[in-house]
Design brief:
Helix 5 packs parallel to helix 6. The protein is of the alpha/beta class and about 240 residues long. Strand 8 and strand 9 form a beta hairpin. The strands form two sheets. Strands 5-4-3-6-7-9-8 form a seven-stranded mixed beta sheet, sandwiched between helices. The chain has a two-stranded antiparallel sheet with strand order 1-2.
């Protein structure tokens, strides 16, 4: 038997003691279009619990897919120095640190709330080894070289904003998503300075939009690095392995 939204709210209010004091409020948040992960306050990423209380970009399954592949490529290596740049929630770096032999892992993001979120997720996941959280606009405040760099930069073109789901536009459409009119503004900055932050033989993994592959390939070749473009679980080009 179907019931109306009003009847459901009346039922939830009446039985709030059984369902929990936040049940009705959370239901209203979901009904307004707020993403489930924000309502729950956390998400899971490769078996790691990722807190989302500061509203970073919600981890995507596409990102989880390529991160797992990158981890498998580096399993067995020891003493790695790793950078998770454009870190957001810190989900990539947390998963890498938990699953690889990481001697040192740095997280970098330009947003104050993301810096707070990363620190919270480091504590929540009890990361071992040396960690550092850096507030940086791309590589601006990052020193030294790394064995591995993981990057999920803002890459959605502003021209596509109107076509995005309402839940994304209303709740996630900030600095975390958009990379200028073409989506390549931040990616260009990242690739331009990448070589100076990779050790010889080091590797960077970067997520991008499938339609950007040709432009990104030219950028990588232009700075003298090698690239291998990979498909995601939906058979779309989604990530690239960049090696020095």
């Amino acid at each position: 038997m179907k019931i109306s939204k009003q009847e459901f709210y009346l039922f939830a209010k009446k039985h709030q003691g059984i369902l929990g004091k936040n049940y009705l409020k959370d239901t209203e948040r979901l009904d307004s279009g707020e993403p489930m992960d924000y309502v729950l306050g956390n998400s899971e990423f490769l078996g790691c619990l990722i807190d989302l209380s500061f509203k970073p970009l919600i981890p995507r399954v596409e990102t989880e897919y390529w991160t797992e592949k990158a981890i498998e490529e580096n399993r067995g290596k020891k003493g790695l120095k790793v950078l998770d740049i454009f870190s957001g929630s810190g989900c990539i770096g947390v998963a890498v640190a938990k699953k690889l032999h990481v001697a040192e892992i740095h997280f970098a993001d330009s947003e104050t709330d993301c810096i707070k979120q990363i620190k919270k997720n480091i504590r929540l996941n009890k990361l071992k080894g040396k960690t550092k959280v850096i507030r940086s606009d791309v590589f601006e405040n990052i020193k030294g070289k790394y064995d591995l760099i993981f990057a999920n930069p803002p890459y959605i073109p502003l021209t596509r904003k109107k076509s995005l789901p309402k839940s994304v536009v209303d709740y996630e459409a900030g600095e975390y998503l958009f990379g200028g009119s073409t989506g390549l503004t931040i990616i260009k900055k990242f690739i331009k300075d990448l070589e100076s932050h990779l050790i010889l033989g080091g590797t960077a993994y970067m997520e991008f939009d499938s339609g950007q592959r040709g432009d990104i390939k030219k950028m990588i070749a232009g700075v003298g690095l090698k690239s291998v473009f990979m498909r995601d679980q939906y058979d779309k080009y989604r990530w690239v392995r960049i090696s020095r």
